[in-house]
Design a protein that fits this description.
One of its GO terms (molecular function) is isomerase activity. Its main location: other. The chain has 26 helices and 19 strands. By secondary structure, the chain is an alpha/beta fold. Strand 3, helix 2 and strand 4 form a beta-alpha-beta unit. The longest helix is centred in the N-terminal third of the chain and has 20 residues. It has three domains: about 260 residues, 2-enoyl-CoA Hydratase, Chain A, domain 1 (Alpha-Beta Complex); about 180 residues, 3-Layer(aba) Sandwich (Rossmann fold); about 160 residues, N-(1-d-carboxylethyl)-l-norvaline Dehydrogenase, domain 2, CATH 1.10.1040. The strands form four sheets. The protein has an eight-stranded mixed sheet with strand order 12-11-10-13-14-15-16-17.
Length: about 675
Amino acid sequence: MTGQIQSERRDGVAVLRMDRPVANALAPELRADLSTALREAAEDDAVRAVVICGAGPGFSSGVDLTEYDGPLVSPWVSALCRDIEEFPKPVVAALHGSVLGAAVGLALAAHARVAQANTRMALPEISLGMIPGAGVTQRAPRLVGAQIALELMLAGKPVVASDPRLRLFFDQITADDPQVAAITLARKLADKGSWVRTRDRERGLSDPVGYQRSLTLVGERLAGQGGAGADILRAVEAAQLLPFEQGLEFEQVLFEDRLQSPEARAQRHIFAAERRAAIMPELAQATAHPLGRIALVGGDADGLADLGVLFLDVGKEVQVTDDDLAQRLKRAFDEALDKGRLDAAGREARLARLTQGAKDGWADLVLDARNDRAADRPLPIPRASGVVARLETGAGLADADLGVRVYRPAHSLRVAEIAVAAGTPPAAVASLARMCADMGRVAVRAAQPAAGAGLGHGMTAALYLAALDLRRGGLTPLRVDQAAQRMGLRAGPFLMMDNEGLAQVEHRLRRVAGDIGLNDGWAGPLEERLAKGAKGRSVGRGFYDYPPEGPRPAKGLAETGRTIAEVLGEIAPRHALHAALINAAARLLTAQAVQRASDIDVLMVRGYGYERARGGPLMQADQRGLMAILKDMKALAARSAPIWAPEPMILDFVKNGQGFFGRAGAAYDVARKD
């Protein structure tokens, strides 16, 4: 055994098995050990061929993302792939489980590939603002052509080895252990005395016209987009136009340029942040109990329908205390059946797990959605190891001992917020966190009472209050919303308030405004709309009107208003909104309401549609530079000090040359115009 490589000889075949926790990531140590093992196999006259495989549940997860934030450590994967491809004896890759990212490059560099039928192969780099490296953009088209290679690289999604599109990637697909078949194939190649290296494969390049047609079609689809997708297209085009070695060099230049781009750094940041968010102290303090039976206390008016559907979809048993909610859930599954989203068996299975009434000792988890309304009946008592938690339905989780907010729409926004007060049993928190993870939701921990209404509500409250202040200054809702979209949000604050309901927003903002010392004048634009019966999207009128063709500025709010310069001087509206968000984040961090700064970015990206390519508002602040944001804050504080007067944390960061994530800010979006 060589470090992280298990090596054994089987009748002239050296089997090199990668064995590194977790998931055989291609870390520098593993790469170095594999390089050493290959050199030893090349020098051993008794070795006639090599098989490379992975220990445990998968082949390899590729390079750990944290490595991309520093210098690329030798031996880099590209060099290792060259060594494999140029190896003087046949090399066969035996693939099972997951083969991700750079591990695909390793497999393609081998002289042959044997895969278990359920092997999952993915090139997820585009989702991180990067392009595949390790020769993937040059070797993959040689095997399968431009069309399939581009589909895999641009989609970034896992594809099983048995997918017909991948047929030409593999020399053999087996339902059994691929290592056995790979050893047999390696011996055959050694006996034959010749094999074709991937660089010399021609079948994917055999139709030059079809290859160019695929490039043209994808280029039309990507027209004007730029970024990683455009670079992938250029690299695959180079596979046809350039000699192999020059193609590899071209890929490496694109790879390193894209690696250092602000978009790639931001997306790697949010990817890692989502995994850190799941680390809660309670998971190490107590055992998480499975929460398979869930009692929902409240009615359809509390917004429980989509959550009930979600729980039933993922296999939970659900008990509801409200007859109307039970009927609404049944109608939802009937509609899904009618529209072909669900078959009859699936509908019946879900309804079989739905019951009405409150039964003590039945539920693992009791979710109380009644919030501030008077409790007209006691909560059902859960089983001995069960959990009782308040379910947030819009009013916030202030003062909750244990609460959970599942961001909605529950099926599409895969994030939850768990409110935890001092003294809450760790097992209850751990069980909720584990349930969220099992349901594919990223859970973020919010400490009570410091988090107030909640982390997400705290951040959006700052956004709403800043937007209302700009409206009072004379900017139209449409202009403010457009600025928020330029900042990175999918929807602007006025549209978000309309979607939620203006009365509910006003009720929650009054508490936040009081907490930060804001006088009553802030509510003017909201009070004006409510006085006119414009309560939001649900009634068809708010800051926007909602005809069938889509939102449009409400009558009386569509005029130009004052110019940006008249309201904000030289400050762009998007920078004013961003500064309010950064100040709110600093307040939450100072109060220790949130475990880490990156958790806030996760909530904003997953819960509010903040653009992943910016990494969330705090990552964006580091990239722009906190000095520039502090300058904006000082100027804006004259408008409303409670919103914009810089928190001490911001002043300390700037004084010490720090950012939220410990790195100096770099100019980022200064070229964007409002």
